[in-house]
Design goal:
This protein has 24 helices and six strands. It has three domains: 24-60 and 346-534, no CATH class; 118-281, no CATH class; 284-334. With 536 residues, it is mostly helical. It has helices at 24-34, 40-49, 51-58, 92-112, 119-129, 138-150, 156-164, 167-172, 186-196, 213-222, 271-279, 283-297, 304-308, 310-320, 325-333, 336-339, 351-360, 370-386, 416-430, 446-451, 459-470, 477-488, 493-505, 510-527; strands spanning 226-229, 240-243, 253-254, 263-264, 435-437, 440-442.
Length: 536
């Protein structure tokens, strides 16, 4: 159990590798920040691996199967087969709706897989960074998400280059309509303001200290000529982007003094890459993305001390590694600063973290047919959207407001309306059986969770393990006693031991299994409403 009497001191401002105590508290902190709901066995695994090996393993990408059709409405692809490189039927509407639903399900399935990898956490980070809505062709949307998966821990500079000409992004921010006759500045502006260098304090009219309005205009001209084709095609397997030289703005483009008055010479389809290279020569780029990574993984509250010590060092690591993201994550996740007790519980769970901590930490996955499992995950997708986070539709080009709106940041997830909906969801999946499809339920697997703990026959051990899994800062003695009283139904601890042993001797007997299940369900229901559970 995490000690409740740890005294928080001012946070350690050092990226020196952590060499302190390595136990369940530290392992659980690492996993809560890198996974969507760690299990107790994963916490034990992490303790046994040690910090260095655990972080190294978490930074490995895992292969992912593509989305598959789960209804006959696709019209082309049979159930169980992927549609990512398949044409549309003549009537595209029902097919596109089916593929879009399939993509939603695929996203939820990935999050529910609970692989020992930071991959999904970083995919959501980049989905927030390069926020784009679904396009009208799910094949293109899949390409966008697959690009994010490919570069989740990869080269940031190359990632920006690839995203710039990604078909979905070209449609979303009007890059496909940006041409020499009618320049469109949407993507050019966001490339600077949101994706690379960031918008600094305004120091003059049209001058944001990191770029000028003239750079937005020049950038738009540099980016002209990129088009898209074969969206919703009934003859071509996938949409793509291409360069049309006749629509590209000719001549050289000169950037402002913020970019050293660099001149981007005419270079046709490679011109945009030269421009991005110039952007990445500016030191503000590395610090900007490292600040976002810090907010995502450590703390939304970036103090002056963190800004002056931690972020510059992370930025130096990024630049010295040619903008590879993985070395920065490794340095951060192995640092004294990350494991400082003051960093625990500093972030309120976003709805996706909240929902999947209910399911993943309790080893709960749907276990029915493809069609039923998919319908369950589709319902879960919308349930999490109702909590304020639609995975596939950030509310604006800037992403979810909880990651940029000061001073509230992650506290925006926990307003009175959303908290009530969180409690409703946790009770639904914990007490009411969960999502119901044709009489099949997808809820918390109480007994699987119980049997994953260190000593399921001991009521004090169960409560201790629950706190380890779910409560970053631990619980005070009164709350610990409350949970144990619910678990044991206010009976002596030995009564729970007898009850559990009776169940384990005949686990398929509902008469002895259901009372155990009920006590665990009631205990989890209470814990899931505690403020400590709302944080990571």
């Amino acid at each position: 159990m995490i000690p409740i009497d740890e005294i928080e001191q001012p946070a350690t401002l050092s990226l020196t590798p952590y060499t302190g105590t390595w136990g369940k508290a530290q392992a659980a902190h690492l996993l809560r920040r890198t996974l969507f709901g760690p299990t107790y066995p994963q916490i034990e695994q992490t303790v046994n691996l040690g910090m260095n090996a655990a972080v190294d393993q978490l930074l490995n990408l895992v292969p992912t199967d593509p989305p598959v059709a789960y209804s006959a409405n696709d019209g082309v692809v049979p159930i169980g087969q992927t549609w990512i490189n398949s044409v549309y039927p003549a009537a595209t509407g029902p097919s596109e709706e089916a593929r879009r639903s399939s993509l939603f399900v695929w996203q939820m399935k990935r999050l529910n897989s609970n692989q020992y990898s930071i991959q999904e956490k970083m995919c959501l980070f980049w989905q927030n960074h390069f926020a784009a809505e679904f396009t009208f062709d799910s094949r293109a949307t899949y390409q966008y998400h697959e690009l994010i998966r490919t570069f989740a821990l990869g080269n940031f500079k190359q990632f920006v280059k690839e995203m710039t000409i990604n078909p979905s992004m070209l449609v979303f921010l009007n890059g496909a309509s940006n041409n020499s006759f009618y320049p469109n500045e949407n993507y050019s502006r966001e490339l600077l303001e949101l994706y690379t260098i960031g918008k600094g304090p305004q120091i003059a009219e049209g001058d944001y200290s990191t770029f000028k309005e003239s750079d937005v205009s020049a950038g738009a001209k540099i980016l002209t000529g990129w088009m898209v084709k074969d969206f919703l095609s009934t003859t071509v397997n996938a949409p793509s982007s291409y360069f049309q030289n006749t629509l590209h703005y000719p001549n050289s483009k000169t950037l402002s003094e913020h970019f050293g008055n660099a001149v981007i010479t005419q270079a046709a389809e490679t011109e945009y890459t030269n421009y991005i290279d110039v952007i990445f020569q500016q030191p503000e780029v590395a610090k900007y993305i490292c600040k976002k990574l810090y907010r995502w993984l450590v703390n939304y509250d970036i103090t002056t001390e963190v800004d002056q010590t931690i972020l510059p060092e992370l930025a130096n690591t990024l630049v010295s590694n040619n903008f590879e993201i993985a070395p920065v994550l490794s340095q951060l996740l192995k640092s004294e600063h990350f494991y400082d007790v003051a960093m625990r519980g500093t972030i309120i769970k976003n709805p996706i973290e909240y929902g999947f901590s209910l399911y993943n930490s309790t080893l709960s996955q749907p276990a029915y047919s493809l069609e039923i499992n998919s319908q369950m995950l589709f319902i879960l997708y919308y349930a999490l959207g109702n909590l304020g986070q639609d995975y596939s539709k950030p509310p604006s080009v800037g992403g979810w407001t909880a990651y940029y709106q000061a001073p509230s940041f992650s506290r925006l997830w926990a307003n009175s309306s959303y908290i009530k909906l969180r409690f409703d969801l946790s009770d639904y999946v914990t007490l009411a059986g969960g999502i119901d499809v044709q009489g099949n339920k997808f809820g918390v697997d109480h007994l699987a969770f119980l049997n994953s703990l260190s000593d399921p026959s001991s009521a004090p051990a169960i409560v201790s393990d629950m706190i380890t899994v779910f409560c970053p800062k631990g619980l005070d003695l009164i709350k610990q006693a409350t949970l144990k009283a619910i678990l044991t139904n206010n009976l002596p601890d030995f009564e729970w031991t007898l009850q559990y042993n009776e169940y384990i001797a005949d686990p398929t007997n509902a008469t002895v299994a259901n009372p155990v299940k009920t006590r665990v369900a009631l205990t989890l229901s209470q814990l899931f409403k505690m403020p400590e559970f709302q944080t990571i």
